[in-house]
Amino acid sequence: MGKKQHSKDRMFITATEWATEWGGAKNREAIAPFQRLPFYCCALTFLPFEDPVCTADGSVFDLMSIIPYIKKFGKHPVTGAVLKQEDLIPLTFHKNTDGEFQCPVLNKVFTEFTHIVAVKTTGNVFCYEAIQELNIKPKNWKELLTDEPFARKDLITIQNPNALDTKVLGQFDHVRQGLKLDDEELQRMKDDPTYNINVAGDLKQMMKELGTEKGKLAFLHGGGGQKAQKERAAALAVLLAKEEKSDSKSSKEPKPPQPFSVVDAASASVHGRSAAAAKSGTAEKTAARIAMHRAGDRDPINAKLVYSHLIFMSYIYIDLLLLV
């Protein structure tokens, strides 16, 4: 407090204040138009993203655009800080039936006036209202979709309508520095998916042969390289040789008579046929059931009928024992 505390409280403005702050002619060329990036666009190409990823500051990029930029310049396109591929966080945006981005919890459509946040640990994107009401206020630090634990520092702001000075296109580092990828490099990236992937020579050769006739033939033979195919062929030859050997022995030696069980005899007495016919019928029925089971075509089982049939067969078995 002092005598001069109200010395600048005047009821008028000076000419300088009028010219610089309140009025007067301004240089329109020095004033850049205000352009803000929509939340659904890549901060590097300014186009709608397809595979969104973000950084810790909330800048969203398309994965196919940011990877070659990092490889070439090694820095953040917006802030200019050092950026690595490990710093990118994959995002999961949810859409409604009309294809509009929305909050998966409150089902509110995202607009330019929506406060949008993402959880760093899971990558799911929500409106801030859902996080505030269901996580922050009740202090329930579990993700709303996956139930995974997270901290408040893991919240990344994708869009804040109250902070209009963020995501201004003219302030981006790659815009001010004039940094961009060549069209030839982008086209090569689209033509060759392995262009930006560090893979070994064998793996790269295998990926190139996936869509060729050689790759399709290898897939039909069970996959693998030539060594694996030779091993499978040798194992198949051994199995075939064993089968031929067993067939030759069985043709020379007479087959022993098949033993008949009490169940076969009971079935023969019930259905009025021989025990051999009963046994062959049982084997054929079993093979048919196995084939139907493998094909997935099975009739529903009547539990009562099976139970009564078992009781009937047990009575026949007791009668046969008494006869013996």
Automatic annotation (TrEMBL):
Enzyme type, top EC level: transferase
One GO term in the molecular function aspect is: ubiquitin protein ligase activity
Cellular localisation: Nucleus
User: Hey, what's the signal peptide range on this chain?
Assistant: none
Q: Which InterPro entries match?
A: NOSIP, PPIL2_U-box_dom, Ubox_domain, Znf_RING/FYVE/PHD
Give Gene Ontology CC terms: nucleus
Which keywords fit this entry according to its UniProt record? Nucleus, Transferase, Ubl conjugation pathway
- Stated EC number for the protein is 2.3.2.27
Tell me one GO biological process term.
Answer: protein ubiquitination
Main localization of the protein described in the UniProt heading: nucleus
Q: Note whether Nucleus occurs among the keywords.
A: yes
Q: What is this protein called?
A: RING-type E3 ubiquitin transferase
Q: In which pathway does it act?
A: Protein modification; protein ubiquitination
- Domain U-box, first and last residues per copy: 35-108
The entry's family comment says: Belongs to the cyclophilin-type PPIase family. PPIL2 subfamily.
Taxonomic source organism: Aegilops tauschii subsp. strangulata
Catalytically driven reaction(s): S-ubiquitinyl-[E2 ubiquitin-conjugating enzyme]-L-cysteine + [acceptor protein]-L-lysine = [E2 ubiquitin-conjugating enzyme]-L-cysteine + N(6)-ubiquitinyl-[acceptor protein]-L-lysine
Q: Does the keyword Nucleus apply?
A: yes
What domain of life?
Eukaryota
